[in-house]
Write a structure and sequence with these properties.
Catalyzes the removal of elemental sulfur atoms from cysteine to produce alanine. Seems to participate in the biosynthesis of the nitrogenase metalloclusters by providing the inorganic sulfur required for the Fe-S core formation. With 390 residues, the protein is α/β, with parallel strands linked by helices. It is built from 13 helices and twelve strands.
């Protein structure tokens, strides 16, 4: 850690690039910068080979075939392609299934994609969740019928860290004959994922959420039975015609290396991170009486804590009072908004309490000393804010 750098506890917004990932990418910027689609010459073929090796690593992380991986710019594009692509292809085929179902706690790009499809004649259904953030089986079962085309439920929530029962959700989707998509950006590398076990038809990934580079992601698209999508934009027909555009070889290679590391070291990471989380929480609960953890206490990824501070303090004021620690109020895609988190609202948390809530993301490179010191700094900031508001 660099001297005087703040303690980084925002690993759900993004993770640092693992040094091994950076080393894997470097040659594809410096030594072989060829276009991986320029297969007429040796450098282009070498770049293509590196891309395909990385694609295989990404596929292996989720139990898929390499040819089922469509590379994208990130999970937002992958989610848009999955939801809008599936709906538009189905519409072209004249299907009677027009219902798209999701949960109120999904990432904004999923919710907005579902809502956008209303203008194209589809029926958006956005279901509530339980107060612990988990899906409600009866409500989901009632929403899935012969009118349902697609169900989209994220594997791990990006704010409260809860892990949904994807196998049960996938089974319900299959009973209704609907496609099942899951946004697994926050899950990959943190929990085991197998597309066959969860019966996913479409699954979204992001490189920068698992210690890889920003600007690269992927969409798993099932081959058997085959899932068809309409592309979002036109071009040269790369990525099986689903996603045109030149692939950024260094980023793809980095994503592949990050996936390889996650597949081999994920369990070790999880155990170590759980220890840092427990240390962090023990210090904060000792020093901040009345602190509350939001979301299911056990069914959550090990590095996540979504914490409501007592005393009616403002989370923005807390962060200003603790410049030595990097945390957030929620999703990095929404945290600039004045409104309280819609995820916390969906859990039934009052706005005043939602405004007093911070998201903590402990990661692979968080040390015990940083976890303990970060908690102490936040507790000190809380006491200062409370005192100032009296």
């Amino acid at each position: 850690m660099r001297p005087n750098r703040p303690i980084y506890l925002d690993n759900h917004a993004t993770t640092p690039v693992d040094p091994r990932v950076l080393a894997a990418m470097r040659p594809w910027w410096e030594d072989n910068f060829a276009n991986p689609h320029s297969v007429e010459h040796p450098m282009g073929r070498d770049a293509e080979e590196a891309v395909e090796a990385a694609r295989a690593e990404i596929a292996s992380l989720i139990g898929a075939e390499a040819r089922e991986i469509v590379l994208t710019s990130g999970a937002t594009e992958a989610n848009n392609l999955a939801i809008k692509g599936a709906a538009r292809f189905a519409a072209q085929q004249g299907t009677d299934r027009r219902r798209i179902v999701t949960l109120a706690t999904e990432h904004k790009c999923v919710l907005e994609s579902v809502r956008d499809l209303a203008a194209e004649g589809f029926e958006p259904v956005i279901l509530p969740v339980r107060p612990d953030g988990m899906f409600e089986p009866d409500a989901l079962r009632a929403a899935l019928d012969d009118r349902t085309l697609l169900l989209s439920v994220m594997a791990v929530n990006n704010e409260i860290g809860v892990i949904q029962d994807l196998a049960a959700i996938g089974a319900l989707a299959k009973e209704a004959g609907a496609l099942f998509h899951t946004d697994a950006a926050q899950a990959a590398g943190r929990i085991p994922l197998d597309v066959e076990e969860i019966r996913a038809d479409l699954l979204s990934l992001s490189g920068h959420k698992l210690y890889g580079p920003k600007g690269i992601g992927a969409l798993y698209v099932r081959r058997r039975p085959r899932v068809r999508l309409a592309p979002l934009f036109s071009g040269g027909g790369q990525e099986r015609g689903f996603r045109s555009g030149t692939l950024p070889a260094p980023l793809v290679v980095g994503f592949g290396e990050a996936a390889r590391i996650a597949a081999t070291e994920g369990l070790l990471d999880s155990g170590r991170i759980a220890g840092q989380r427990d240390l962090f929480l023990s210090v904060l609960e000792r020093d901040v009486p009345g602190l509350r953890v939001n979301g299911h206490r056990d069914q959550r990824v090990t590095g996540n804590l979504n914490l409501t501070f007592p005393g009616g303090v403002d989370a923005q004021a807390l962060m200003r009072a603790a410049p030595g620690v990097c945390v957030s109020t929620g999703s990095a895609c929404s945290s600039a908004e004045v409104e309280p988190s819609y995820v916390l609202r969906a859990l039934g948390i009052p706005d005043a309490e939602a405004r007093a809530t911070l998201r903590i993301g402990i990661g692979r490179f968080t040390s015990p000393a940083e976890a303990e010191r970060g908690a102490a700094l936040l507790a000190e900031a809380w006491r200062a804010v409370v005192a100032a508001e009296r």
